[in-house]
């Protein structure tokens, strides 16, 4: 089986990191290998938005339209910042039409306007049912840039990512991944050149943006989650707001504001899971899977990253994490 797994566990007693498998079908994984972390990026973006709320630059109940570029020409129809954070905007996602063309040009640079033009016109009511979609977080990225008047990568680095030890956590494509890197699907390093040097490709990360474009090794991502859950990034009040789960969803534990309970029913937790496509995008297979969370009962952080190609499955993600949970509980 191609690929492998990198994991980091942080507890009050110390930090452990380990790997198994290969980065590219030949070289063994190291704990320094960067992986695409997919939608775990959303928690980082949400933390930045909450920092701006704390600074009174935004309110959760502000209309998104009041903070989006005027030239965008995209009607958000009563959608608030809170709706976007919680995937309750009613705006349908653009992924189906994007997937039809994404693998055809791995070096294409997608703009937000390109993506928004592909969003289906039929939509639900703002503030209605939970409907997970990257479009919500791409709009939040535009809000961050419009309010601050600076590229989102700069804002993140001085805000939500202003944590020691995050040099190998990078926001693509503004920040480039560097060796060592785990290849999508565990394939050869030839894939890296095909994708323009990004994980998994330049086209994919420009589509992903503030929804899913970050790459990281497992220790760096664990450092971020430790700081976040310790209240060192956003305030405890913001943490409470973000981790309030109003009802159940497809994630079973309920989605808050950039967070859900990815461990449910295995352990009380707040965190996120993510996937990132392989280069070929065939058979609904993903080149990366990620799982990251703070576990309240254990007072610990677990991050698991893999470049083993598989279809999206919570069973697959949980299967990587449960053995670590068992070890934590056994002391």
Could you describe the 3D structure shown?
- The chain is of the alpha+beta class.
- 31% of the residues lie in helices and 16% in strands.
- The chain contains 11 helices and 9 strands.
- The chain has helices at 41-54, 81-85, 95-102, 112-116, 134-148, 152-158, 190-194, 202-208, 218-229, 236-242, 314-330; strands spanning 4-11, 14-21, 35-36, 170-171, 214-216, 269-277, 285-295, 300-306, 310-311.
- The strands form 2 sheets. Strands 1, 2, 6, 7, 8 and 9 form a 6-stranded antiparallel β-sheet that branches. A 3-stranded antiparallel β-sheet has the order 3-5-4.
- A hairpin with a 4-residue loop joins strand 7 and strand 8 (300-306).
- Helix 1 runs parallel beside helix 5.
- The longest helix has 17 residues, at 314-330.
- The radius of gyration is 18 Å and the shape is globular.
- The protein starts with a strand and ends with a helix.
Concise overview:
The chain has helices at 41-54, 81-85, 95-102, 112-116, 134-148, 152-158, 190-194, 202-208, 218-229, 236-242, 314-330; strands at residues 4-11, 14-21, 35-36, 170-171, 214-216, 269-277, 285-295, 300-306, 310-311. Helix 1 packs parallel to helix 5.
Number of helices: 11
User: Residue-averaged pLDDT, rounded?
Assistant: 91
Gap from first CA to last CA:
31 Å
In percent terms, what proportion of residues is strand? Answer: 15-25%
Low-confidence stretches: none
DSSP strand tally = 9
Structural class: alpha+beta
C-alpha Rg, in Å?
18 Å
SSE pattern, N- to C-terminal: EEEHHHHHHEHHEHHEEEEH
Helix content: 25-40%
- What does the overall shape look like? globular
Task: Report the major sheet.
Answer: 6 strands, antiparallel
């Amino acid at each position: 089986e191609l690929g492998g797994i990198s994991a980091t566990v942080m507890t009050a007693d110390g930090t452990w990191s380990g790997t198994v498998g290969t980065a590219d079908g030949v070289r063994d994984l190291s704990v320094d290998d960067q992986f695409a972390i997919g939608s775990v990026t959303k928690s980082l973006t949400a933390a930045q938005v909450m920092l701006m709320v704390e600074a009174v630059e935004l309110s959760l109940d502000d209309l998104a339209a009041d903070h989006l570029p005027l030239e965008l020409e995209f009607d958000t129809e009563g959608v608030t910042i809170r709706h976007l954070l919680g995937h309750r905007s009613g705006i349908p996602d653009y992924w189906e039409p994007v997937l039809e063309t994404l693998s055809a040009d791995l070096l294409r640079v997608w703009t937000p306007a390109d993506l928004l033009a592909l969003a289906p016109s039929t939509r639900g009511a703002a503030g209605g049912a939970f409907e997970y979609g990257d479009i919500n977080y791409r709009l939040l990225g535009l809000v961050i840039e419009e309010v601050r008047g600076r590229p989102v990568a700069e804002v993140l680095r001085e805000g939500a990512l202003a944590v020691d030890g995050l040099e190998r956590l990078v926001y693509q494509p503004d920040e480039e991944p560097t060796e060592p890197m785990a290849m999508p699907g565990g394939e050869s390093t030839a894939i890296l050149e095909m994708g323009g040097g990004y994980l998994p490709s330049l086209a994919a990360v420009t589509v992903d943006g503030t929804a899913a474009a970050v790459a990281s090794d497992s220790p760096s991502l664990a450092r971020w989650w430790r700081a976040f859950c310790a209240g060192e990034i956003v305030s405890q009040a913001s943490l409470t707001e973000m981790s309030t789960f109003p009802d159940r969803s497809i994630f079973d534990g309920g989605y808050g504001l950039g967070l859900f309970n990815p461990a449910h029913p295995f352990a009380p937790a707040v965190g996120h899971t993510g996937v990132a496509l392989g280069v070929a995008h065939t058979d609904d297979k993903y080149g990366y899977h990620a799982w990251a969370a703070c576990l309240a009962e254990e007072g610990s952080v677990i991050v698991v990253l893999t470049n083993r190609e598989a279809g999206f499955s919570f069973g697959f993600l949980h299967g990587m994490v449960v053995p670590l949970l068992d070890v934590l509980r056994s002391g």
